[in-house]
Amino acid sequence: MHTHSTRSRRRRTVVALAVVLAVLGVFVVRLVDIQVVNADEHISDSHERAFGAEQPLYGTRGSIVDASGQVLAGSILEYDCQLDPLLVTQIDSSIASGDSDAQPWSRISVELAAILDFEVDDVQSILGDALAEDPESRYAPLADGVSTGEYRQIAELSMPYLYCQAQPARTYPDGAVGGNLVGFMGSDGVALEGLELSQDQCLAATDGERSYLRGKDGVTIPGTDREVPAVDGGTLQLTIDRDLQWYMQQLIAEQAQDMGALSGAVLVLETATGKIRAAAEYPSVDPNDVGASDADDRSSRIFRGTFEPGSTFKTLTAATVMDAGGQTPTSTVVSSGYETFANGAVVRDAFGHEAYTYTLAGVLIDSSNAGISHFSERVDNQTRYDYFTNFGIGQDTAVDFPGEEPGVVHPVAEWDNQTVYNTSYGQGLTTTMPQLAGAYAAIANDGVRMPLSLVESCTMSDGTVVEPEAGEPVRVVSEQTATQTREILENVFLQSSMADVLEIPGYRVGGKTGTGEKFDPATGRYKAGAYYTTMIGMAPIEDPEYVVVVTLDEPTRVKSSAANATAFQKAMTQVLKHYRVMPSTAAPTMLPKFG
């Protein structure tokens, strides 16, 4: 009996084990069928039943910084927030049945309205409208452009049906400081103006993307997550000094308003490098609030505006006749306040006078149109044209600012009898502030014109530094001619009726004024009583480090370039102080006005 019982137990064990193995075999066969034999079919079916999801990964647009790294334009995070309407209803149902102790939507909607400064009814209608359109809706937009502070308050509500997606937005910490140069972005993130536009290749980020599959319950299916990382934009460093730019903007705003001018500008140029250290304008634009500025004030008149330079051009003519015509500061001409030339052209001075024996220095000191016209005859017209273009007049600058105008210097073949002489004192041609500053900087830099620059470099997100192609320096006049021209310019200021206003204690300064008539395209004539006034100078005159240009468009309180004098003196004083330029140590050389 004992043996039979043992055999029975063994038999039952074997049978049970056989059954287990048979069942396990069935599962193994089925598993191989699912995961191997028909794997593709099942994967395809699961994908069809899953929900594909894509999430943009935003790169950060690069910053624009000044010469010392201070941020003029940067990026911050804002958030686009949304609701899951179906999940709201599910949670409210759980609250009603006692299965959840969460806050109901009626309470959360009140808190959301307070955070976002919305009406409660408006928040609640977002949910109601979405569910009315689709009771199974999983998406309803709540608010775009939510600040970081607001986002944190929303996150503290800890409701799973609230989701906020971060994205970068543009900010300009110093407002209008440099706004005319920096430019601005559209609400859609597209660069619209200024360096934001022209340097977009440096600044723009490359967005990435995260994609994945999720089941009907919203859970991400393992192994389906794919990510293409975003690439941040580069950092654009300018030659501009933020603090100096701020000062110049305050200064020119005050001067333009005091003189009743339509607009005004100040440009500061470093002579040895061609770097623009300040380019201030009034009116300007705050890129944080573009709509507050008139459309005409949203870019840079400094680069886009052209004007007849008037008597500031006499300096270039003087340098030309000294360099190419063998003249010196004490060479002479006989000229009255009204001259009729051999070709029939008539030239008048701003004041009537009898025939004087003027020196070249005296012609610039008295700003005699007729006198400089006589001197211009000592070189041929083509030579003068060539010198003007070598000085950079009528030529594109290396800055390549968007919309920058080149001005107009007509070829000699197009000069009529009057233009032959008008061009010697800045009429019959147009230029820009950067061109004029570059020409004077050539005289300051011993006759070599440096290419102008506004951008120092672009540092890409991987650390690569890209410097712009600046062009080559141009020898315009000899070192001797440059020195002699600077001596004349110093005497222009020293012997001016504005000498006391222009004086900067401790420094020798030289420059020239210009009162250009304004051409009216509507009438084809110059506007009566309307002038574009300019004052340009350099310091210290014995070895100038900086050139400063101040312009006013149609000043009404004082219509001559005397309107610019106070602003010029303050601007140059600030530049010399800001850059700690050493005072002059030698005495000036006084030049005679008459021979």
TrEMBL record:
UniProt entry tagged with the keyword Transit peptide: no
Coiled-coil stretches: none
InterPro entries according to UniProt: Beta-lactam/transpept, Beta-lactam/transpept-like, PBP_dimer, PBP_dimer_sf, PCN-bd_Tpept
Protein name per Swiss-Prot or TrEMBL: Peptidoglycan D,D-transpeptidase FtsI family protein
Entry similarity comment: Belongs to the transpeptidase family.
Subcellular location: Membrane
Domain Penicillin-binding protein transpeptidase: residue ranges: 264-572
Predominant subcellular localization, coarse grouping: membrane
Record's keyword terms, sorted: Membrane
